[in-house]
Write a structure and sequence with these properties.
Length: 141
């Protein structure tokens, strides 16, 4: 299986970053405003990207404030069955976030596009946590 991996420093507390990854308001502030989410294991998170496309993620693990894990159950075909894991580590400069998007069957144009999009959205997450304003879909380009 193939994996996407990104790591970045966010100059904000680990609690701030964890909230942005788990609370509906936080997720809507950096990924897509059309978000339905509750921070509970087993819940289904829904992220809409326009009227015709959405992703659904099942929350499979929450370990506050270090770990958030989702299983993709609806979305692009090559996303289904993949796992997105956010690991957080507190440092004297803020929070180090590591994102792993695991379970890709092969390297495809969709894989490459997804890796690029994660980089853009992680920048949005960092901006939200550091300044209070992210750049979610559809404004992220």
């Amino acid at each position: 299986m193939k994996s996407i991996y990104h790591r970045l420093l966010i100059q904000a507390s680990i609690e701030t970053v964890y909230d942005a990854l788990t609370l509906e308001k936080g997720l809507a502030g950096w990924w897509t405003p059309d978000t339905t989410a509750q921070p509970e294991t087993g819940r289904i998170l829904r992220f809409a990207f326009g009227p015709e496309y959405f992703k659904e993620m099942k929350v499979t693990r929450l370990e506050p404030p270090q770990t958030v894990e989702w299983l993709c159950i609806k979305g692009y075909e090559d996303w289904i069955g993949t796992t997105v894991t956010f690991q957080l580590q507190s440092t004297d400069k803020g929070t180090v976030l590591s994102l792993r998007h695991d379970g890709w069957k092969e390297y495809t144009p969709g894989f490459a596009s997804c890796s690029y999009d994660w980089a853009l959205f992680l920048r949005s997450l960092r901006l939200l946590c550091e300044t209070g304003k992210g750049i979610p879909y559809p404004y992220y380009n």
